[in-house]
């Protein structure tokens, strides 16, 4: 079953269970997917949906930081609950060790020598690890690999 079909099924299940929080979050995800389809006139595949999910999680993490700074724990908790619902649609992520190993292999393959080659390495890394690893971890691993 495609990720898009899975999200639709989960929405129906949440409607039947009258789970309003989960339903609202899934609807936000579907709205973001529909927006991307309409804006770019494309049919979303699983990789594009994973990119949307990653973006939504990043937005919520940023919101949580802002809400906690403003002492709005109620809103921060709501965002954390949304993250938990959205995370279900991400594939199993690579561990930090796996990310480091993959980055070092790509650095060796590309022949990168120093920090000046970061753009070249990130281009290859993004295509290979998109959706499989947290890009924050990937970026840190590339910087560490190129600083030696």
UniProtKB/TrEMBL annotation:
Classification via SUPFAM superfamilies: GatB/YqeY motif
Pfam families the record matches: YqeY
InterPro entries: Asn/Gln_tRNA_amidoTrase-B-like, GatB_Yqey_C_2, YqeY/Aim41, YqeY/Aim41_N
Cleaved signal peptide residues: none
The protein's name: Uncharacterized protein YqeY
Biological source species: Comamonas odontotermitis
């Amino acid at each position: 079953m495609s990720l898009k079909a899975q999200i639709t099924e989960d929405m129906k299940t949440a409607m039947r269970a009258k789970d309003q929080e989960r339903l609202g979050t899934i609807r936000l995800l579907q709205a973001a997917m529909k927006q991307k389809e309409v804006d770019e006139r494309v049919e979303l595949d699983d990789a594009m949906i994973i990119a949307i999910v990653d973006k939504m999680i990043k937005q919520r993490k940023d919101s949580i930081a802002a809400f906690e700074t403003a002492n709005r724990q109620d809103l921060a908790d709501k965002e954390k609950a949304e993250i938990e619902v959205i995370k279900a649609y991400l594939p199993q992520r690579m561990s930090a060790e796996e990310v480091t190993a993959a980055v070092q292999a790509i650095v060796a393959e590309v022949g990168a020598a120093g920090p000046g080659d970061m753009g070249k390495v990130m281009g290859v890394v993004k295509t290979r690890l998109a959706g499989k690893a947290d890009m924050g971890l990937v970026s840190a691993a590339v910087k560490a690999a190129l600083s030696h």
